[in-house]
Design goal:
three-stranded mixed beta sheet; 21 strands; alpha+beta
Length: about 400
């Protein structure tokens, strides 16, 4: 073979080896970033490094904290398998197991963004509580960091391996700058209710629920659904057991008292002249919702509170609690509609506490069109609902 041909053959061979090596590295990284198991290891050196990694302590690091991981935990992430093209038993990191562990520690690393709290001052929206960015653990990227970090450990490495946690910054939905750009520049309406005298658990649930609806932004034409935005109602989401009206009885369930929140939002939406798509009164009169006839009950999967943003701009819903008063404020851009609310007027009042009520709302739009809504309520006698206490007491 001539020297020039030999050199060409050698060059092609070297390029082929480099290409294959590059493909292996790319394949492993690609699968790791997708949360899948890299099934190609570069050599037995990876197995050797993982054996060392399972003996050492591991530390996850962020800018503000260090999280120690014991070797016993690291061993759970490593699994053996038979290499397809050699038939040898090797070790590799299982991304799914790493992800499960990272989800647990995300409870200590994640922090929700805090929306700006707004108020009206001299006819303009001003900020009285600034927004604050949150943070969220990027699990897929961190899994890739773990796989790469554990695979590079050697006998010359430190006894404690350090791997960076990938933390993403989370911007709040409501900042003063954002609401101004969305056309949110004035107060449209305010809803108010008083939960004074509520039991401790009921007050707690109202506070938790009100926060859930603070900072909601609806685009023009978008529908508000209380149940969709509410999310899960149980101990994991911070709620406590309290009385609810269900199946003709007053029984304790997680989230009892949330109707104080839906009632107050209904009052704000009604005063703003927004189309009410779904509203249902309670089965019996409850003193927390005085005046009777201006309430809105909800129960996930059964009864919802829905309304629509039919204004030409975005609207912002914000909550605040002062003493025992709950307020919901709706900000947006006024389009010239005039809203008149009459009542609620109570009638057919019975000695046993049963009564009826009627609330009338009239909306006159800029083009002269008029829409009249009549919200009727019929409340049964409280005595028909057995419980340990009367909600009117």
């Amino acid at each position: 073979m001539k020297p020039t041909i030999a050199k060409a053959v050698i060059s092609i061979f070297v390029l082929g080896v480099v290409f294959i090596f590059g493909q292996i590295v790319y394949y492993n990284k690609k699968l790791a970033s997708m949360g899948k198991e890299p099934r190609i290891a570069l050599s037995g050196q990876l197995t050797a490094n993982l054996n060392i990694a399972m003996e050492n302590k591991l530390t996850f690091k962020t800018e503000t904290k260090h999280i120690a991981v014991e070797p016993a935990e690291v061993k759970k992430w490593v699994e053996s398998y038979t290499r397809d093209y050699t038939g040898k038993r090797e070790l590799r990191v299982n991304p799914a197991k790493v992800s499960l562990f990272l989800k647990k520690i995300s409870e200590t690393t994640d922090a929700p963004a805090v929306n700006a709290r707004l108020t009206m001052f001299d006819g303009k929206i001003s900020e009285f509580q600034p927004s604050k960015n949150g943070q969220k653990l990027n699990i897929p990227v961190t899994v890739t960091n773990v796989i790469a970090g554990l695979g590079q450990i050697s006998r010359t490495s430190q006894q404690t391996s350090i791997i960076d946690l990938s933390i993403d910054e989370v911007e709040p939905a409501v900042t003063l700058d954002k609401v101004n750009k969305l056309g949110v520049n004035e107060l449209l309406a305010r809803g108010e209710s008083d939960f004074g005298g509520s039991p401790k658990n009921r007050t707690h649930n109202i506070i938790v629920g009100a926060k859930q609806f603070n900072g909601i932004i609806l685009s023009p034409g978008e529908e508000f659904s209380f149940n969709k935005l509410l999310g899960a109602i149980d101990a994991s989401t911070g709620y406590l057991p309290e009385l609810v009206i269900k199946s003709g009885k007053l029984i304790p369930e997680y989230g009892g008292g949330l109707c104080q929140v839906s009632t107050t939002i209904f009052r704000a939406a009604n005063e703003a002249g927004l189309p009410i798509l779904e509203r249902r009164p309670h089965a019996l009169p409850v003193r927390y919702y005085n005046p009777q006839g201006y309430d809105a009950t909800i129960y996930p999967g059964v009864t919802d509170l829905r309304f629509k943003n039919d204004t030409p701009a975005h609207i912002l819903i914000q909550s605040k609690i002062t003493g025992s008063k709950l307020y919901f404020e709706i900000y947006g851009t006024k389009d010239g509609r005039q809203v008149t609310v009459e009542g609620p007027r109570q009638y057919d009042i019975q000695k046993n506490g049963a009564l009826k009520a009627e609330l009338i709302r009239t909306v006159v739009y800029p083009d002269g069109q008029t829409k009249k809504d009549v919200f009727k309520s019929s409340y049964k006698a409280p005595g028909l609902f057995p419980t340990v206490r009367n909600p009117l007491e």
